[in-house]
Amino acid sequence: MNATPLAFDAADDEALCALIAAARTRLAVIAPAVTAAVAQALVARLADLDTLALSVVLDADAEVYRLGYGDADALDLLRKAMVDHGDVLRMQPGVRIGVVAADDELLIFAPTPRLIEAGSAAAHKPNAIRLGGGSAAAALAASVGEAVGTKALTPVEVAGVQADLARNPPKPFDISRAVRVFQSQARFVELELRNISFAARTVSLPDDLLGLVDDDLRTRIGTRLKPFDEQLTRVRMNWKTGDKEDERTVDASALNKARARIEKDFTFVVPRFGRVILRSDEAAFEAAVEDLFENAKRYQAALLEALKAKREDFCSRLEKEFGPRWKQQPPRSATRFDSSPDAVAKALRRCVEKVADDALSLAEPAKHLLYKEIAFENISDKAFVETITNRLKQAGAPDEVIASLFKQFDAASAGDQGAKP
Predict the structure, then answer these.
(1) Do residues 78 and 89 lie in contact, with contact meaning Cβ atoms separated by under 8 Å?
(2) Is the pTM of this model over 0.85?
(3) Strands 90-91 vs 53-58: parallel, antiparallel or unpaired
């Protein structure tokens, strides 16, 4: 250890690891969190517990890892290693100062959250004061367990941190400027599914096909024709749900009900603002939407097969309906080049086949999914916050999820190409 340490020093990983490795009889570390490198340095000293008095105190709040004070994996690694060696990792909620007491040296430093650090190019970045003499270091080491770190960190608390980070993971720490950041575990979502309802489809009726007397056709015709009755729109198909499939009878209403169920299970509407989803539900929501989209395509394919089988019957009914009138008074389009009965019959056939083909020309299903961030201004609206909170309570969301729904903290805007911590 340096006999004449600098009054001002840089408490980076290299300096902390060196100080930890140099301790002989007494070592105390207090910080919001530690990096993987510092955790490994501490684990390496656990073999010396017969001669080394070791105390480690950290915070147990997921926010310290989202801000980049340390590495989340280091927390569980260090706790388990200390338990295995008969020691405990202690916790101090809210601690934001860093201290290392190694024998007679005391290093007091300001932990730098990587989400805020703007990437200084300076080789030496003083953020610590190093003191020698022994008395201060001894006093600090003696305070662990009495003034700070009075509670041992448990596996349940570590699991809580990990679950929180899984719901709302850290963002990239490539930072260019400090700003006031609002972080939400919810977002607005817009879902549009087009061309999944086929039962109400109609086609334009040519001017030459008017004056119906067929009772069944009359109920489905005006200036437009609804070519399919409801019975024809119910088809057998394989319905996909995740990794499972089952054969069932499906119509357009089944697809619309499935969509409504997805929106009910994963989202809720905030009046005047829009539909909202929790970030933690987005993956499952997208999987359910993808299944629905696949089922819509399968339904359309099965429907077209069923309708194609009825195409000739549909054409024959139209020919039977319009044949007598065309024979007596054919439209000019049918006799322009040839007025023979055979030419008129062929013209009628082309006309009804065009109607049938239009009826069987279905636009492919399409989907559009868009997420929009909840703005900082939204949480100033009391009704907005109360609506989301009440909906989550009704859905049985844990209190910690509701409490952390909207967070504000001093951080910085992440660069588009930032690397993850």
Answers:
(1) yes
(2) no
(3) parallel
